Amino acid sequence: MYDTAIIGGGLAGVATALRLQARGLATIVFEAHGQPGGCAGFYRRRGFSFDVGATTLVDFGSDGVGGELLESVGIPSIEGEVLPGYVAWLPDRTVRLFREPAAWSRERLEAFGDTAGHRSLWRLLDRLAEVFWRASRRGIKLPIRGVADVVRAARAVGPAGWPLTRYLHWTVADALRANGLSDDRPLRGLLAMIIQDTVHGTVAEAPLINAALGITIRGAGLTRARGGMRGFWKHLIARYRQLGGELRVGCPVDRVDGSRGAYRVVARRGVVEADQVVAAVPASLAARFGPGPVAEALAPYLRRDAGDLGGAAVVFLGVPDAEVSCQAFTHHQFLENHDRPLGDGNNMFISVSAAGDRESAPSGYRAVMISTHCELGAWEGLTPETYATRKRELGTRLVTLARRIYPELGRDAVVFEVASPRTYERFTGRPRGAVGGVRQTVTNSNQRAVPHDIGVPGYWLAGDGTWPGLGTVACCLGSRLVAEGVLAGARRRPRIPRALGASHAAISVR
Ligand SMILES: Cc1cc2nc3c(=O)[nH]c(=O)nc-3n(C[C@H](O)[C@H](O)[C@H](O)COP(=O)(O)OP(=O)(O)OC[C@H]3O[C@@H](n4cnc5c(N)ncnc54)[C@H](O)[C@@H]3O)c2cc1C
Questions:
Q1: 14, 19, 39: which to mutate for ligand 1, most atoms within 8 A of CB?
Q2: pLDDT of residue 497
Q3: Cβ(127)–Cβ(121) under 8 Å?
């Protein structure tokens, strides 16, 4: 009998398991794929290690949301490249999105204009980011379900931030309009790219506060671990095992039945009993294999969000160092055309492994990942031949576009592979291959987001489909809230988190 069974060995699942195991609970993680990682995982090919989805860890500095995770489970440090920022390539200009606030303040006024409207918009975004990043780090919990949550949220936001809650119903378009910037195409183009990448939404619909956090993720800190996600997972799993946690890979869960105190997890390699269960998979999967009340509780959310799912395609390249050494920055975001819809190359993110990172690429080579958003429908119902052709064409298109940044990219590639929504469906089990959380709007996020506690005792949800949705930072924050809930109801007394011995739990700069 385990205290907690965690279904899904992606970041949300393993982060939750680590926290619980570190507090003395007996946990087990079931992962369907042959290795953990999910959408933040990796694969190896010809000496390269490619990140299959997430390439950057967000807010893993010592006082960040990710840093708090490392510290609380006793992972002392993970080496990596703390990015100084990245470059946004717009059709008519390039903008360096510096991590350092003063450099970014100068750059944005130079790039987009130094009018009263611009200054006022940036001020608002900075203020929202300051208050709500802090609230995230303090562990704010949404949706608010009772008085305790209200008090917690009020404390996390702090009295000085309370007036900003009036922006809860604003979209990014509202903020542009209020500052007379609705027709500023370059600015709108930059915001549209970042918003699609971080909250999966659009300028017209994305909730302003969530988008402000997305727009400022560089300030919170972006890091690519040495060896990419493979390097990161090595540390996480080693620590989980050291704490006595049990990870079963290649072991999909078919069904969970029973109730609080006596859940039965029916997996490929047998049945396990657990006091509580954490489903760290997309909500649609949790509904599919969970007990009846879970499916009932999730049904309204799943109906509402069915049209707000999206996919991704990624090109993986192993290239000689010389093909990418012409740029100082290793990460770039690219917009081809303001007038075309975003996705399918028109907004792509390019991530290059750091020079000298021998865990990501053999000597003299670099690993390159180019990702773009795509519609799921475009990849469904294809014959094998059409599918292969579509993948090849998209891969060629992305590499050709990326040559605006790296003119020689891919000429002598030793690896050139393409992932599509079908790839994600196959390797992460995500229905239709939909990745990230839902495309965020004011009607499906924050107070209306899928909660971690759906009212089924001892059954919890975690992952990028639950609040706050999207990305590694959301998985870390969600895992913290879920672990708190599990610990509060644990039959075994949790250990005081002292003997973990993390001296400093930040990603160290190379
Ligand atoms: C192309 C791309 C780029 C991205 N870039 C970034 C980035 O740079 N920074 C960032 O912060 N985020 C990024 N993200 C988002 C981030 O990767 C995800 O939000 C995050 O990894 C989701 O983690 P998760 O644990 O919620 O879900 P998942 O990663 O999907 O994990 C769920 C796990 O559950 C397993 N599973 C499914 N069904 C079962 C079952 N029945 N039994 C057992 N196991 C099961 C799956 O195999 C999977 O491993 C990116 C995503 C993509 C796709």
A1: 39
A2: 62
A3: no
What tokens were used for 47?
């000496």
Give CA–CA dist 273/84, Å, rounded: 47
Q: How far apart are CA 455 and CA 433, in angstroms?
A: 28
Question: How is 427-439 classified by DSSP, letter by letter?
Answer: HH--GGG--SS--
Residue 158's nearest CA partner among 144, 138, 129, 179 is: 138
Q: In one letter, which amino acid is 485?
A: G
C-alpha 38 – ligand 1 centre gap (Å): 4
Beta carbons of 289 and 275 less than 8 angstroms apart: no
**What contacts 1, CB < 8 A, 6 or more positions away?**
273, 274, 275
Residue 492 is predicted with a pLDDT of 76
pTM: 0.96
The strand pair at 222-225 and 2-7 is best described as unpaired
Contacts with 252 (C-beta within 8 Å, 6 or more apart), sequence order = 30, 32, 267, 268, 429
Distances (CA, A) of 429 to 256, 286, 468: 17, 12, 21
Average pLDDT (193-212) is 96
Atom 19 (ligand 1) nearest CA: 471
Give the separation between CA 410 and CA 368, rounded to whole angstroms. 9
**505 versus 100: which is more confidently predicted?**
100
- CA nearest to 442, candidates 168, 142, 133: 168
Nearest to 253 by CA among 274, 236, 234: 274
Spell out which residues line ligand 1, taking CB within 6 angstroms. Answer: 7-13, 30-33, 38-40, 53-56, 58, 252-253, 280-281, 285, 289, 312, 314, 371, 428-430, 435-436, 463-464, 470-473, 475
Structure tokens at 288: 């599919």
Instruction: Give the model's pLDDT for residue 325.
Output: 97
Extract the tokens encoding 157. 């936001």
Is the separation of the CB atoms in 347 and 192 below 8 Å?
A: yes
Residue with CA at minimum distance from ligand 1 atom 2: 53
CA angle in degrees (0–180, nearest 5) for 128-62-154:
40
pLDDT higher than threshold 50 for residue 449:
yes
Report yes or no: 148 and 481 within 8 Å, Cβ to Cβ. Answer: no
Percent of residues, the chain, with pLDDT higher than 70: 97
Asked if pLDDT for residue 508 goes beyond 80, the answer is no
CA distance 140 to 464: 16
How many CB atoms are located within 10 Å of the residue 280 CB?
A: 33
